[in-house]
Design brief:
The protein is mostly helical and 388 residues long. Helices cover 68% and strands 3% of the residues. Strands 2-1-3-4 form a four-stranded mixed sheet, covered by helices on one side. Helix 10 (217-227) links the parallel strand 1 and strand 2. The radius of gyration is 24 Å and the shape is elongated.
Length: 388
């Protein structure tokens, strides 16, 4: 129960970031915020850094650690022992895929993917999106505490299994419903006026900007359509062509040198066929529906995250506990979760379907569910017994 507040504070940090950004936007004129004001929230985070350092310096070691230290039972090389301790490689594998992989992809999808989806793909007004997520986050933060208390009674495995299964069932329907509530006209326009891209080398290079490489002409067009939230179909062909409802869009002279010009001209052409790229503000009933969906996603995250701090501590032997926990947690959060936006973006660009990036989360959770079912301990919570 008590460690669930740690997980709830992750959502609290997300909420705090929204509040800080909203405050900066309110105090700093928009043109100045876009020019330099966006740096202010990062500078303000120095205050949090100071607080976190102070808290860490005030922490006391656990009684178990003190007892091991007094008895001379400390590990000489905890990193190496994490892989040589009997049975620990299996525990790390289960913690990586059956715990961290599940929780981090669901959490990223529930909060960061929702933010990007509503702002970029659905073209909602930024303030509206931030306020909507703020309300959902404030309510959803309590779910983690409830799950933590529940796991003290039923064990850590059951909430994670239930959360993973429900995610596989509800992930796509949740985003479909959210899209229909946020901007129903966009889906209707795409259905009535299908966009087709034909040409050679029709793929995007996700590392082009990082390594200063130039996208292929088709890759430039796909990138523009993806960033505009436009669904499209890819077809092989010898000649590069962009069509909407069977009519070719004339390529501008500087499309492949000026990304802004390409975006403006493509959006202008699509606007003539019913696409609306202006910022949307849905009616109150739709916004309440979006909040309800975000709460469902928050509940899925809470089920798979609320008891994790206690679970990881219970999974590993005390003498190598911190190292053994850190390996799967940070690899899972850093790679399985951290690369989610990149991988999802590549999937969307390669398929033309704005929802297809969710398959990454679905796949990681599906594999993690099998691992969790196989490897997590059943029954009520119990401390690890070091019997090596």
């Amino acid at each position: 129960f008590y460690t669930s507040f740690i997980q709830a504070s992750v959502v609290g940090g997300f909420i705090l970031s929204i509040i800080v950004v909203l405050g900066c936007r309110f105090l700093i004129p928009e043109d100045q915020f876009n020019a330099w004001g966006w740096r202010v929230p990062f500078l303000l985070s120095i205050v949090l850094l100071g607080i976190s350092l102070w808290m860490r310096l005030k922490l006391s070691e656990s009684p178990v650690f003190k007892a091991m230290k007094e008895a001379g039972e400390m590990s000489g090389n905890p990193f190496v022992e994490s892989f040589t301790y009997p049975g620990n490689k299996k525990r790390i594998f289960v913690a990586l895929f059956g715990v961290t992989g599940i929780l981090t992809t669901i959490w990223y999808s529930a909060f960061f993917s929702s933010l990007s989806f509503l702002q970029r793909d659905m073209r909602l007004d930024e303030l509206t999106v931030e306020l909507t997520l703020l309300v959902a986050g404030l309510i959803g933060m309590t779910f983690y505490v409830f799950v933590g208390r529940w796991s003290d009674r039923v064990g850590r495995k059951k909430p994670i299994i239930i959360g993973a299964i429900l995610t596989l069932l509800l992930l796509f329907p949740s985003f479909w419903a959210m899209g229909n509530l946020a901007n129903p006209g966009l889906a209707e326009a795409a259905k009535s006026n299908p966009v087709v891209v034909t040409g050679p080398q029709c793929s995007t290079d996700p590392f082009a900007e990082l390594f200063k490489r130039k996208q292929s002409p088709c890759g430039d067009i796909l990138q523009t359509l993806t960033s505009s939230g436009v669904a499209y179909e890819l077809r092989p062909g010898e000649t590069l062509e962009l069509t909407v409802n069977g009519k070719a869009i004339e390529q501008g002279a500087n499309w492949f040198e000026d990304g802004n010009a390409r975006r403006d001209e493509i959006q202008a052409a699509l606007t003539e066929h019913g696409f609306d790229f202006s910022r949307q503000t849905p009616p109150l009933t739709s916004l309440l529906g979006i909040v309800a969906i975000l709460l469902v996603l928050s509940a899925l995250s809470a089920l798979t995250y609320g008891s994790v701090a206690a679970l990881l501590a219970e999974m590993f032997p005390p003498k190598i506990r911190y190292s053994s926990m850190s390996i799967p947690y940070h690899i899972g959060a850093g790679y399985l979760g951290g690369f989610l936006p990149l991988i999802a973006g590549v999937i969307v660009a390669s398929t033309g379907n704005i929802y297809s990036g969710l398959w990454y989360t679905w796949g990681v959770v599906a594999f993690g569910l099998l691992v969790a079912w196989w490897g997590l301990p059943d029954g009520p919570p119990q401390d690890f017994e070091d019997d090596a």
